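Hello again,

I reread your note about wanting to compare the complex against the isolated chains. To keep things tidy I'm splitting this into two emails, and this first one only covers the full assembly. Below are the input lines as submitted, including protein chains and any nucleic acid or small-molecule components. They are followed by the predicted structure of everything together. The single-chain runs will come separately.
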Amino acid sequence: MREHPTKRSSAAGGPSRRSIGLGVIGLGTVGASTVRVLLEHQREIERRLGCKLDLKAVCSRRIESLDLSWLRGRVKNIKVTPDWRHVVRDSEVDVVVELVGNLEAARAIALTALAGGKHLVTANKQLVAEHGLELVGQSQRAGAGLGIEACVAGGTPVLHAIREGLAGEHFTSVLGILNGTTNYILTEMEDRASTFADALAEAQQRGYAEPDPTADVEGHDARYKIAILAMLCFGAAVPVAEIPAEGIGAIDPVDFAYAHRLNRTIRLIAAAERAAGRRLRVSVRPVMIPRTALLASVRGATNGVLLVGDKGGNTMITGRGAGGDPTAVAVLSDVIEIARDVLSGAAGATPLGYTAWHAARLAPLGRQVAPFYLRLVVRDRPGIIARVSGILARHRINIDAVLQEPGQSKSALPFVLTLEPARQEHVARAVREIARLKVLAQPPLVMPFLE
Amino acid sequence: MREHPTKRSSAAGGPSRRSIGLGVIGLGTVGASTVRVLLEHQREIERRLGCKLDLKAVCSRRIESLDLSWLRGRVKNIKVTPDWRHVVRDSEVDVVVELVGNLEAARAIALTALAGGKHLVTANKQLVAEHGLELVGQSQRAGAGLGIEACVAGGTPVLHAIREGLAGEHFTSVLGILNGTTNYILTEMEDRASTFADALAEAQQRGYAEPDPTADVEGHDARYKIAILAMLCFGAAVPVAEIPAEGIGAIDPVDFAYAHRLNRTIRLIAAAERAAGRRLRVSVRPVMIPRTALLASVRGATNGVLLVGDKGGNTMITGRGAGGDPTAVAVLSDVIEIARDVLSGAAGATPLGYTAWHAARLAPLGRQVAPFYLRLVVRDRPGIIARVSGILARHRINIDAVLQEPGQSKSALPFVLTLEPARQEHVARAVREIARLKVLAQPPLVMPFLE
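Full-complex prediction:
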């Protein structure tokens, strides 16, 4: 690794370094966009930095099958390799941009790069959520920069906002719509009364959903992202596997009809908040929120994050959560910040905003008290409300209201109970009992009401 | 000035510096909040920094009349002075926080502090809008940090977003609701059909508007803020005095009634966008926007900024725009960032995100082509529409539609013409001619429709 100047020049705008070298590993959608946006914005970026930013090497396992003539035409002498080790060891490369999909490959690249004193930018949310503290430690030991903005909400600068723009805040909670696929599906169901299956097919056709949509639809993708947000908001490492996640597969257009009657809507909300005993309560689940709530205004394949602080109140950031170009903007923003630090000899100081970390203990979600929405679909039989309310009463859960949309089919009749505030675990126990009733045409659906 | 370490320690989390000293000048609403929030969040901030952050001195011209027992109780040996020079020269102070209201005093404090090698944080928007490049130059020469987050939209981290989180973006425009007072007044008029005068009185009673509301209501406050946003988005110094500003004093509840018929609403929008010939088009004016527009969701005394980039698309940040605590959060976030830079020996590298600046040339607003809303209030006389449309026709402006709300008084009858896209200067000329018609009971009101 070349020596970096350890003190910036004190002359106006005149850092002594001539250029910063970049290596990009992974040329999928995000990797290709990153290279293209870099070349397109290069002059403007260099005006910001007062220094050249040179793409020195690119790497892809399938490099043989890619047509890179456009790149070779634009960047003379660019090194092209199928082996990431060549990029990570390249003495001309200062910043390694890791954009491969595979977790184990990404981890090997990241740790090797940092150990070798390279600065690292990654868009791999799973890597950061599961191995974040390992990366932080490695980066601090090596005095190397670490950029992770692209891991959460694509082009939306939410991680920088937490770490820098709102660094003086004491966050009490962070809530987000962090998965564009599921938000697209939910707003399609809301606006067109599409079924979940139809809205998913539509999302797949438009390229918003993967052929195997499980990670999005079941909330696993959002789980990585809320773990990273919690990490930055609270300076705590969250055990991803322990975060309870519920998907949106059981939601039906009829739930939006009921939601609207209650002046609410449904969103898949990832949330992390401080709870008693210095714990964090973290979850991913569909929630009934007021139609006037800030997060209700996040529609379609976009992302939104609501940061709640004890002094500044609510700050909300919305934008495009995924896609090649927005993610490339996030990657390049990290590259620029690291380049600034390299120029001033300061890279790697406090990689993710804290110098001291602790392991988060999660508060059990079951203890949370909230009012609930319970939707049942039954074969039309008398006495069902009496039986359901009997079960709820035995669990000491009070019914607030019973709602029924008119004009439903007689063989699968949905109706809704709204429940007064109760512990989630008590509601879950009662609902398990209700689920065993033979008159149900579908499993019951339960969601909390949150403000 | 003490020597700062020029290289961070390479041991994990162990910077060699023990503490950073802070001096706060100005103890009004924001100054007092800054001190209080600092003391409240001090432990958390120090965990972020891995270093102590010590309040060493406070200064207020009216220090004799303030009860500072709460502060002396909390901070041993704090220096208290009515003379800012004592703070700026204090060898224990590393970062000067300038929170006085007066422009000339603020400028003297800022330049003296920077010249003496102190890092500076300011919340004075007029200072930064009018003397921004002077501050940048001084800070670069001295190798000192410069924090201005609190100048625009209080606790909303929009300046950091532009400079860091979205540094890789090429911005095409930035639009904002940057003045909470006028947005409160407009949404009151919208929701309760209040007159402008009543809504203003209500805002004054709630402390959202000053006794002399001119700077807010006429758009001058927003003008400073859009100049600063343009500076950071485009790396260009904007001549504040040349920004055309129009206030909201002529807007009537009836305009909201018409706006809603057109599925629109009215907001005071500050905008800066790239125009032909490397110019910027900058303005502050009330605008008719769709009710579904992102900025339409910004309601009450809050702020919202919409950043439009050519790669990442629309990013929107909303939050509390003013008030002691949110502004204090912004000030402290800057202090923390500067402290990080001090710890790593990097302060002052690229103060506002660019190493090279140019002077912006403004594109004349008159050349902008847009459809327009034209509201006239006339004494009920036949033939008025024929005369108005005759004038518009002579200026080659086409009428799209004529609207009239039913049930109005006969002596002051409002009606609205929507105009097809035309140059603003042509519309203005026609409207000046229309304004001379004797049948008008009030001056005409004209606003562009923008998407």
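For quick reference: Residues 19-154+324-359 of chain A form a domain with the Rossmann fold fold (CATH 3.40.50.720).

B.
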